[in-house]
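Translate structure to sequence.
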């Protein structure tokens, strides 16, 4: 079956006459352009036949065509020449082969469950000579590509397996993975991070604490500062709670009770009110 006549192929911008091979009807103009491009660039009948199928859109066709044109083998191209992959996923698999990854490496991330951005993070780790065990620490479809990137950078910076496990255990520390990886890279210990959580120190304040490491502050001094910040937070919380309680009490008093309370407070201030007189029983207004 002829794919298209010579004139149509030339109108698409290609001079070489198409060859006869197993093809299907109803290709779009963009799909025809990709098929003609393969023929124009010297791909074989079998190579073009791999992607000359209406099940592939023009972008997927292009990724398959580029694989052949860049010297990939049929076995390598067939790993991603599958409609279950979108064209961006195909591109990440193709680039893995082109950058020298082995079949085992590529098959580790050539899975539909990974987005193209997640594939890229795994691919970069493998390209940087991470072991499968190291890449496996973040090759989890439940992690965002951004979190994967911070873990990958953390491993490159020397984070241990235990530190990576700690960073990804958000149920333990309660902070964003990206921030925890950054804090560990800078020098904060897992114990210090957990203490920050206990003291309800916000991400913003932890970042301020971590900034102390850039000022040549020792780890012990940072620990002391964490306690200082935590005490300030607790004190603020207690003051807020006290203000709320006072507001509740004031709203619960009668006018006479409020006057009595104010008079007693004034007497206490002057040391003229005894403890007995100060013992006012506050009854909630019914």
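Result:
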């Amino acid at each position: 079956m002829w794919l298209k006549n010579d004139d149509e192929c030339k109108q698409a911008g290609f001079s070489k006459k198409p060859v006869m091979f197993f093809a299907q009807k109803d290709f779009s103009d963009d799909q025809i352009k990709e098929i003609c491009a393969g023929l124009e660039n010297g791909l074989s009948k079998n190579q073009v036949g791999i992607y000359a199928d209406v099940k592939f859109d023009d972008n997927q066709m292009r990724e398959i065509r580029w694989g052949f044109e860049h010297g990939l083998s049929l076995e390598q191209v067939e790993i991603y020449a599958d409609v279950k992959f979108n064209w961006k996923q195909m591109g990440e698999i193709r680039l893995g082969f082109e950058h020298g990854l082995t079949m085992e490496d590529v098959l580790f991330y050539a899975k539909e469950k990974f987005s193209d951005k997640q594939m890229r993070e795994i691919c970069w780790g493998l390209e940087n000579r991470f072991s499968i065990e190291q890449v496996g620490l973040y090759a989890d479809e439940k992690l965002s590509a951004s979190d994967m990137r911070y873990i990958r950078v953390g491993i490159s910076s020397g984070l241990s397996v235990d530190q990576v496990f700690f960073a990804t255990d958000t149920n333990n520390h309660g902070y964003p993975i990206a921030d925890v990886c950054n804090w560990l890279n800078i020098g904060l210990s897992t114990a210090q991070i957990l203490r920050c959580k206990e003291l309800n120190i916000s991400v913003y304040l932890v970042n301020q604490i971590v900034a102390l490491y850039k000022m040549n502050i020792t780890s012990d001094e940072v620990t002391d500062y964490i306690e200082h910040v935590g005490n300030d937070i607790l004190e603020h919380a207690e003051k807020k709670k006290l203000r709320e309680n006072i507001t509740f009490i004031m709203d619960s008093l009668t006018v006479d009770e409020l006057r009595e309370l104010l008079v007693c407070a004034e007497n206490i201030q002057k040391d003229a009110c005894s403890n007995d007189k100060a013992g006012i029983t506050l009854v909630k207004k019914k």
